Amino acid sequence: MVRYLVMKSNWRMAVYGVALVAVLGFAILLDAAPAYAQIEYSSHTTGTDETPPDDARDNHANPDGALSFSRASSMPPLPFRAPLVGPVIKETSWDWALVDEWTTAFLPDPSKVKPDFELPDEDKWIYVDLSEQTVVAYEHNKPIRAFVISSGLPGTPTVTGEFRIRMKVRRQTMSGGDPELGNDYNLDNVQWVQYFFEDYGFHGTYWHKNFGQPMSHGCVNMTNADAKWLFDWAGPAWDGHSVWQRTTEDDPGTLVIVQE
Prior knowledge:
The chain is an alpha+beta fold. It has two domains: 2-74, no CATH class; 96-259, L,D-transpeptidase catalytic domain-like (Beta Barrel), CATH 2.40.440.10. Helix content is 23%, strand content 25%. The strands form two sheets. Strands 3-2-1-10-4 form a five-stranded mixed beta sheet, with no helix packed on it. Strand 5 (167-176) and strand 6 form a beta hairpin. The chain is globular.
């Protein structure tokens, strides 16, 4: 009986010993964990912003606070998670029945939209980046709105250079191409057209939604809503009734810079 009690006592002590070692081991591992592993929990508790909210900063100032950011400087930089084109202005369903509501508009980030030329001294101007398939509207040196577009296909590229919008038309039928080559087209009710060089211009598009890749015969394809915004914003101002709105000395067309 005595031997049994001694064995039972030794067994309990062994169990307690194993438990104590496990607790101490966990504490050592926690202390040795990377700083960002601990801060990650605090960030999840207070939100995902890199800058702690006011209440978290107050807790950091107070040693008795529930949260601590004392080791936040050890965190590795977070990956960039914003949309490639920037914050979108309006979500689009891309339902064909809502074609006039489609938009690719986004708010451009000035630190990422950087043309490799000296910015012009213009109240308003338009930058067409063919390599990025984007159009950016500028007011002075500030990009205020941008759009994803479709420029000319390799066989019918969009012209490059510096131009000015020379004429506007609210809507028209566009036709051209060569039937023998199979690239002819006849498109009715093309809206919000702005020509900047010969037959090259900005206009609305309802026959495709492949914005972000070249699709056109040389013009800059935009959604109808985006083309309307640019039409209303850029000069010459449309008087609301003229079929062909041309530039004047008092109302010259907005500068357009097209670059690869």
